[in-house]
Amino acid sequence: MSKKFKITSLAVLAFILGISCWAYIELLGNPFKQNDAEQQVTTYLIKQRGYSPEQLIEVQVTYSSKSSEAPYGASVTFADEPEAKYQYIIFNNREIKQYSHNSDHPKHEEPMVR
């Protein structure tokens, strides 16, 4: 094999690897930030909104690549309203706001962001 062929092969391989990493991050999100979103929303609800850990059945991470201002968030289910989901978003400045909910009688409604 010639030296030129080896260099070209390495360049193509590096390009493909770079595109693959970019696609993973764009399509699936950064898993470290996603895991961090769950903890941030849980901490917000406990420390700033006064909920106990027992009141939170599930905090599930959601990811939105459409918003550059608030790319991460979480869906929350409360123990006293297990059929409902409340969506919270995390802004780049770490501010957390309720975005929406699917409850007919929202017990945990906050001023929402649209």
Distinctive features:
114 residues, alpha+beta, elongated
Number of helices: 2
| Run of helices and strands | HHEEEE
Q: Which word captures the global form?
A: elongated
- N-to-C span: 60 Å
> Any low-confidence stretches, pLDDT <50, length ≥5?
none
Strand order of the largest sheet: 1-2-3-4
Structure classification: alpha+beta
Beta strand %: 25-35%
Total strand segments: 4
Helical residue percent band: 25-40%
* Average pLDDT for all residues: 81
Main beta-sheet strand count, sense and barrel state: 4 strands, antiparallel
Radius of gyration, taken over Cα atoms and rounded to an integer in Å: 20 Å
Short recap of the structure:
This protein has 114 residues and is α+β, with helices and mostly antiparallel strands. It contains two helices and four strands, in the order ααββββ.
